[in-house]
Amino acid sequence: MTRKEAILQAATIMFSQSGYKDTSTAEIAKMTGVAEGTIFYHFKNKEKLFLAVLEQTRALIIDEFNSFMSHRQFSSGMEAIETAVSFYMYLSGKFENAFLLLHRYFPYKMAVSVPGCRQHLEAIYDCLVDIFEEAVTAGQKDGSIASMPPRKTALIIFTMVDGVVRFKTYNLYDASALYGDIIESCKKMLRPEQTAEAYF
User: Fold this and answer.
1) Residue-wise pLDDT tens digits, 130-145
2) Could you list the residue range(s) of the whole structural domain that residue 179 is in?
3) Are 101 and 12 in contact (CB under 8 A)?
4) CB neighbours of residue 98 within 10 Å
């Protein structure tokens, strides 16, 4: 691992656990065993370091998701939905600090005034919702999913799954215990005999 990679790893942990305001570059330097000036050499300032952390988080989650989904053949769009739900919950456990970071309030507050922050957050969520939308569209073509607005449907499914993951992120509830219920809810909502008017 390079010094730059070590700094990003430590910064992800610190920002996710302590927030932006309460994380100092001095603490990150101490955690990684480098001089504070080394951080500024690679990232110029604390804001740019945080943006680099968001960029890395985006690449980490999206690359893992795309790699996993692209190497699988699905018998139906509904099967793709189930797989996407399962893998998203798995990733939230594998990359706990990344998900904790995304579930904190401060990145979205920063996004109001920092364009780069907003761009990274939008890219992360757009890519994730795209995966669910593609599954919905495929299911509508093969008849396993009802005719509903694909984007809205994907947003509702993603929001439901991400909401459950937040319980896990904050150690409030074991998200895996609800996996079967989430899948059953998806099936009921998406079953072919449903109509768009039933939900929208």
Assistant:
1) 999 999 999 999 999 9
2) 53-198
3) yes
4) 22
